[in-house]
Amino acid sequence: MRLSFVLVVLFYSFSSLATPWEKEKSPTTNSTSSIGSYANGCLDGAQALPINGVGYQIIRPQRERYYGHTEAIQFIERLGLTTSEQLGTNLLIGDISLPRGGRFSSGHSSHQTGLDIDIWLRLTDKRLSENELAVPKPVSAVDLTNYKLRQSNWTDDHFQVIRHAAKDEKVVRIFVHPVIKQALCDQEVSDVKQREWLGKIRPWWGHHSHFHVRLKCPEGSANCIPQALPPKGDGCGEELASWAPKTIPVPPPKKVATNKKKKKIKVMPSQCLALISNK
Ligand SMILES: [Zn+2]
C-alpha cells in the first residue's frame, strides 16, 4: 500500500472522530454570548485571545482552543498584567474553548461556553519560544504517589496568582488538586474575611499541573445556565480532608448486575445547533 494512501485513510478516520464543533474553524460574528451549561453548551460571537499578551503566552496555539467569551479574554488579560507587574513572571494559558464552543472529542467535558480557562502551574520568567509553546512541558506541583506538595515546584508566586484569580469578581470557581487546596488553606492568614476567596477553590482530581478557572454567567448571556454556588466557608476543613486517600483498604462493593443506570444523553440547547453547519 502506498504511504500517501495510508495517510489519506488515517486523515479521514481521524477527522470523522472530530465533533461538529471541532470542524467549525471560525467564531460567529454575532455579539458575544455564552449559551447553555459549562458541560453542555456553546459560544456565540467568541473572541480570540491575542497570541502575544502582557504576562501570558498561549500554549499549543496550533489547536486553536483560545476562543472565549469577552469576559474570559478580559479576565486573562487582567491576570496576565498583574502577574507581570507584581510578580515579574508569565502565565501559560491552556485550553479555553473552540471557536463556537461546544464539545471536544476528547480531553474535556466542560470548556463548552467560553467561560472555562486552564492555566498552567508552570510560571515562566523567560518567555517561551514558538517551538517550546507548541510542545510545552508541564510541571506538576503534587507528588501524586505520596499525596503531598512538591515543594520544589511550589512558590509564593503560585499562591499569589491563584489568590488574585479567585478574588476576581467574575470568577466563581477554581479547580485544583486537593493537595494544592490544602497548601492554599495553610498559607492564607486566619482572618475569616480574608479567607473568603478560598471558598471558590474547589478540590478536584487531575488539576496538579494546571488550575481551571470558571467564570460566572456574564450579564447579557440570557441563555447561560449557571451552576449552584460553592458551599459557604473556606472549604478547608472536613470536606477537604475527605479527599485524602484512606489508609485502610476498603473492599470493593459487590457488583449488582440489575438496575444498571444508562448514561443520559445530553441534548444541546437549540440555540447552539443553529451555530453549526453539521449537526
Ligand atoms: Zn479545564
Automatic annotation (TrEMBL):
GO terms for biological process: proteolysis. Disulfide bonds join 42-272, 185-236, 217-224. Keywords: Disulfide bond, Hydrolase, Metal-binding, Metalloprotease, Periplasm, Protease, Signal, Zinc. Residues 1-18 form the signal peptide. InterPro entries: Peptidase_M74, Zn_M74/Hedgehog-like. The keyword Transmembrane helix does not apply. Gene3D superfamilies: 3.30.1380.10. GO terms for cellular component: outer membrane-bounded periplasmic space. GO terms for molecular function: metal ion binding; metallopeptidase activity; serine-type endopeptidase activity. This is Penicillin-insensitive murein endopeptidase. It comes from Vibrio chagasii.
